[in-house]
Amino acid sequence: MSSEQLFSPYDSGKVWKMCLTASLGSFIFGYNLGVFTSIHDPVASTLDWGSDKDTWITVMSAIMPFGAMISAVFSGPISNRIGRRRTLMLSNFVTLVGAGIIVIPFTVTFGIGRFITGIGAGSYAALVPLYINETSPTEISGQTGAMVQFQITLGIVVAYLLALVLPTGDYDSDPLTYWWMGMFALQGPIAMLQFFLFFWAYKLETPTWFWSKNFREDALESLRQVYSEESAQEALKRLDSAQNQDKELTSSFISEAGNDPSYMELLLCKQGTGKLMRLGWANNFFQQFSGINAILAYSTTIFGHLGGGTFMSRVYTVIVGTVNMVSALAVIPLVDKLGRKILLVLGCIGMGGCLFLSGLFSGPLSSWSIAFPMISILLYIIFFEGTIGPICWIYCGEIMNPRGMSICTAVNWFCVTIVIFTFPPLKDLLGISVVFWCYAGICAVGVLYFWLDMLETRGLNKQEIQKLFMKKSS
């Protein structure tokens, strides 16, 4: 037994292993976001899109987050009924089916496969933060929660790296053109890996889910997976205490009337959920309308526009993805040290400044070296991944129950769909520099919003967060 286990009430190694298993879903989520970015031309050649290539690329880029948006709505109630773990395992099968269909070389099957894998990705996005939050002790929940964004960025960079072997021309005769099929198929084995890890190694649902179903003994057994016997009993008492707080709190959500709010009540911000839902929506809105997925989904196109050839544009895209991943890893110790609010404010300031510079270097100063827009985009990525990228998922996982998380995740995917679908026509209509400036303006609004309305949750457990929002609800 390690010294950490002797003096700590929980086994941090076991916590991290369980959270790593759950976050494989986040890897698949990120991989789906990145896999299509650098392979537009090989796919277009194989599926014979011809003069309609740009239209199909836009549609196929947006159809995956559209599927994710739909599944996000249903993943919450399904997980309430059968558990977070079982719903994630169900999503693994959905991903496997989608990966099998997408490699059938027809436009229709490609679109269906993208939509189905999007359904899986939406479920992962909604449930992985909840699973990690409900599994992790409060002392390290910020650090384990940051694993969500790290795995998303890792999935993106792996997809970018795999695209480097694709040809840069002569797609009709080069057999490597069809490598894109293997790239899309890769998510299937990863989904099955997560399924079997849950099936063999981590067989219990989260303590919070067991407790919400009044399975106290099962909740205690689940707590024993990471806590010592005495600490597991204490943790169960803390869950029990939620029933005795004047019936103002439910097991996992705020409710002035003592009832768990329905979807309609959440959407209408009733039962004292106004501020909570507002913050959930705002985190997801500003995360996406900072333009992150426009840059990630069209990074190869963007760098081609700025002066890079096909292969170098893919290399620049890999650099962006790598910086994206390293930045997500670096933020893990900062989340619990600096807090959520200050990081969001600083992040919006940094992102807005970098986007403003990117607009200058791609517009009025476009004659300058490609190094300047490259550096400004990389700095933007660092600010995003060091702040709102992971904190959006951490914060929503802390304050939301499955219904609220489903709504917020659907909002996130809706924003992803809009951003990805509108970037190409806006770029053609306004110019890429103006689009960057629009995203910078949204970041400026985010600075004011988070400074004025954000509630800090650092160091608070679920029940303490619920009390905080009850006092501040509007």
CATH H-level homologous superfamily name: MFS general substrate transporter like domains
Sheet having the most strands: none
Number of helices: 24
Q: What would you call the shape?
A: globular
Descriptors:
474 residues, mainly alpha, Growth Hormone, Chain: A, 76% helix, globular, disordered N terminus
Description:
With 474 residues, this protein is mainly alpha-helical. Helix content is 76%, strand content 0%. The protein contains 24 helices and no strands. The protein has helices spanning 3-7, 12-34, 40-46, 53-82, 84-102, 107-135, 141-162, 179-185, 187-200, 207-212, 216-223, 229-241, 263-267, 274-289, 292-297, 299-306, 310-330, 332-338, 340-362, 371-385, 388-399, 402-430, 432-453, 462-472.
Q: How is the topology of this model organized?
A:
Elements: H1 3-7, H2 12-34, H3 40-46, H4 53-82, H5 84-102, H6 107-135, H7 141-162, H8 179-185, H9 187-200, H10 207-212, H11 216-223, H12 229-241, H13 263-267, H14 274-289, H15 292-297, H16 299-306, H17 310-330, H18 332-338, H19 340-362, H20 371-385, H21 388-399, H22 402-430, H23 432-453, H24 462-472
